[in-house]
Design a protein that fits this description.
single chain, 320 residues, alpha/beta, TIM Barrel, two-stranded antiparallel ribbon
Amino acid sequence: MSVGKQRTIATIGFCLPVSGPSPTTHGPALCHYHAMSQSTGTIITVAPTGAEHAKSDVPNLPVTLDELVRTAQDCERVGAAMIHVHIRDDDAKPTLDLGRLKDTVGALREQTNLIVQLSTGGAVTDPESDRLRVLDAMPDSASCTMGTVNFGEDVFLNRWEFVVELHKGMIERGIVPEYEIFDLGQLSSLQRLLDKHGLPAGGHVHVDLVMGVPGGMPGDTETLVAALRLIPEGATFSATGIGRSTLPVMLASLSAGGHLRVGMEDTITYARGERVKDNAQLVARAAGLARIAQRPPLASVHVRELLGVKGEKGLADVAV
């Protein structure tokens, strides 16, 4: 088979050469996408806080700005390149206060080299107007959830019009999105978004498969493989395992050429009967597994290049 005609189908753990026409993104095999996006390193994102856990229940949860900055520094030292940020108010309750968001972005930029990604999800009760205003804090990156999902006992609402507005707002501001996927159908919505409204700021598509949320897709190898068949061509992906799915999802993602998100937003249990000590413990474990997989953690400077996060202040260049 000539080099020009060879393609590969990725499976968990290996790639199989095949012949014939290239598969489509909706075909039975996967991997024109995987072959294009496989990396020799691993992006490790830390999600240290979230909006679900109460400080009274999880005393080591970082909720103040000082705690968040110290956590970011500790996690950067052991392998994190990006931080996914939810913030809290003076009572440790989730908030989308714009002034606090701007202070948080500024402090993290000043005291770390991490890519700063703000959550536009907030808490499930936050109104769309507040979630859109998150973009005015001008982070390097922001999340964009691609559809509505049952979230435990609640509903995480993401109307199509709202998703489009988020996507366009990030393009206008040069903020690189991470498309959060809670269920397989949301990958079809992502393809529709890109077809109708164009590529994101930075020109590269990166998704995070959020797996194991009650009401969303399960956190197992079979579902991750199914998701990869639907990811847009040329995209990269991270995977997040919630709760007890943390380790299975981490291992499956690494073996399939994917990247990792870990943190106390997603799990407060390190092992059976053992609570997480801090976020750095989770990052260190992810970094260790990435090294075992011979895909060591990528430094933030390389992640910026990979994801299209660039420009004087870390923001993607905006087309003029």
